[in-house]
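Supplementary notes for students who missed Thursday's class. We covered one full example, reproduced here. Read the sequence, then the structure, then the short commentary at the end.
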Amino acid sequence: MRYALAVLETQNFRSAATRSNVSQSGLSMQLHKLEALLDTVLFDRSRQPVLPTPEGTRVLDQMRTILRETERLGRIVADDSDPSGAFRLGVIPSLSSSVVPLFLPRFMAKFPKVQLSIEELKTEEMIERLRSDTLEAGIAAIPLERPGVIEMSIGLEAMFAYLPPGDPLLKKAKIQQEELAKRELFVMPEGHCFRTQVLSYCKASSEQKKSRLHFESGNFETLIELIDRGLGATVLPALVARSLDDERREAQLRAFSGPTPLREIGLITGRLDLRRNVTEALAALLKQELSELLGSTPKRSVVLDPFSKDASA
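Structure (token representation):
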């Protein structure tokens, strides 16, 4: 059944075999045996990508349920002991470089029985993986308010404007969101929730005014380098801004006037009853690490919706 679900998720026999650590011929032979046992053809092998047949779709859904409940049965006892076992964690790209190094060394030292696997995923991919039981938890911007997704808040991160040297706005201690919108904003690509938060807060359109240069990057270091060289402007979350040297923080980083824009960071999961001990241990550690770095929440602040197109300040 696990081989069949691997084919369903990868839509390719070779990829499914690689994921399952078996030969392609071995995987195919086992699937043929399973189909003969069930008297049902699970996959349409005449096309690429490999897709389930109508009958196969119903059978595969039931297989997923069986494996889920089998795993749950085994974990009921395991969750009464120390955190252990394989744990698959997703992290959105805009949090990966700043959050993972914060908790990973301490988590691995504190919970040596946990085999942690971390993968960068966009939010929508993460939600789909949680629903398909190929991911135990994820670190993402919340609130998401999606059916079947449980959210645990672990931190509130302020956002700052980052401007090129010599920009007139740097003469101010704080700047207005509308002022930044008049600059050419370098942001993350479509599909990244941080992009949506920045554009909606600054009241900027994803279709900005025509210019000789249009650039998007999922890497904050690249955006910072471009701004340092006098191109455009961007918005940096606090955890990224803290990596700047003191000179650049003082010279090029500015807070926003009015309520402080915040990104709420959360640990999300599809099933808190399964792997509860690992999930709760991870959430507690993340919350502690982020609290020490981010400090108290500003009195005047606004949490930005990761998917809203019209966030107001």
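Commentary. The domain at 2-78 is CATH 1.10.10.10 (Arc Repressor Mutant, subunit A). Residues 205-209, 309-313 have pLDDT under 50 and may be disordered. If anything here is unclear, bring it to office hours.
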